[in-house]
Amino acid sequence: MKSLVPGLAFVASALAASRTSAPSGCLNVQKSGGTYSTIQAAVNALSTTSTAAQCIFIGAGTFNEQVLVPARSAQLTIYGYSTDTSSYSGNGATITASKSQADGLSNDATATLRVKAANFKLYNVNVNNGYGQGSQAVALSAYATSGYYGCKFTGFQDTVLSNVGYHLFAKCLIQGATDFIFGQTSYAWFEKSDIRVLAASLGFITANGASSSGASMYVFNNCNVAAASGNTVPAGAYYLGRPWGAYAKVVFQNTNLSAVINSAGWRIWNTGDERTSNVLFGEYGNSGTGASGTRASFATKLSSAVTISSILTSSYASQAYYDASYM
Questions:
Q1: Residue 47 CB: number of other CB atoms within 10 A?
Q2: Of 56, 179, 248, 312, which cross-links 207 as Cys (Cβ 3.0–4.6 Å)?
Q3: Is 194 noted as a catalytic residue in this protein?
Q4: What is the rounded distance in angstroms from the CA atom of residue 85 to the CA atom of residue 91?
Q5: CA-CA distance, 279 to 300, in Å (whole number)?
Q6: Is 273 designated active site?
């Protein structure tokens, strides 16, 4: 990306370091003492027609708001306060809201963070939907090609809506219980991320909604699937996914699957509405207790790993949303 000042791009890629103050050139959002007291106010202050790179820094604290990032000509990066930018463990900035479809909203409109800006990047921010069990309640709604690095996304049902564009999640945590990674027309790659499940007797990690061949695909590579901290989850309670759409495509590869994963691996949508005739539910090179057992008849054991270029296109490494230092 083009920098507002020399060295700005370096801030994004520096790993195993702290980021506790606003990088040069970034708008500064703080609970107190910043130029802006809300994230939305900072987003609104930026031009949607300028082509110069834009950035926002979110200071430590919990910001109770929904944030919409509209489409724009510039590449926008939002950085969060972090004592260790290499992962989500040192994150200090949290955005939280509790909207749900029980409020009469669409999935997208329930989201705590709504991304419509192409090549958007988010670093070291926690995004939470605190509604809990009972209705669809999204933390992140991604409707544009974008990258997420060292972030935490937490909710219960429908936590991450990966819906339009190409999406990269690297060294993130994504947590939920029901269909908590879902969408219809996106291609998403999840790299070195922790997938965490909440206490439940039955749960589903993914619900890919592709309604035609080639519409969407999710790949989890070098990830880790386990119970969320402080949650007791019965062995076999969770499935890697079920088909929201009849052409759902999801692959878990080179990933550690704990005992929370059912030996069948994958599940039909519903009895009498199976939607499994045209799915690709694949696995390759996984490990852990949850990687063993007799898989569902509609599951596929792959002979080789899926390549990132087949998901994010052959030019992924040169795209503005991509940060190789997290891979």
A1: 11
A2: 179
A3: no
A4: 8
A5: 9
A6: no
